[in-house]
Amino acid sequence: MQYRHPGVVFTSPELTYGTAAHELFASEAETLSEEEIKELINSKKPASFREIRFEGVYRRVKIKGILDFFYIKGGKVLLLLDYKFSNYKRIFPSHRIQVDTYGFLLNKNHLDTNDLICGIVIVKPEMKGRVDVYDDITPLLQAEAIKMRQRGIDVSYFNCPGIYGHLYHYSLDNSKRNLDWAIGYWRKQRNAIPTKKAHKCNVCQFKAEGLCKPALVTTRRH
Question: How much is the pTM?
């Protein structure tokens, strides 16, 4: 919806907190030039990257994304993580579509994603100051990804106090199917698919602006 209606700004407390958290993560990382990043990737040495922008083109549509974290070794991308800051203890389809798109961008930039494991990590906002996302959480997920490959595990769920999410094996085919689905709307080849949940529809800024024709009727009479 936002692609077709860029003038509509959707905000929420969790989105505001997430933006601030990502800016903090970026400020704490060592800043590298584009040339230094390419040189480090091409060296095939083990390296971790965070808050790195990638671009690619799919079916003549330019795709951009800022990846929270990815780890490479021997020229292969082995782990891709996206961090969400939310009180919802649930993985939404949009989360996975976003991460799969990041995997597509890595592949599109000639990185080997054949052994890639993706992860979605939901951190409660109140965990701020009690846990370091990269120093405390990421090493545990890297170890779990190694175990998944060794034991042939498809999906691994984790549920700790204030932290929730799962790891799964990346599929380039799934990425392309997701992009086909999105591009169909961007190019006006199909209408938006409305949510079936009234509470989500109620708080949607696109409904408030009168831009979603199939919006649910959520007003109740007492």
Answer: 0.81
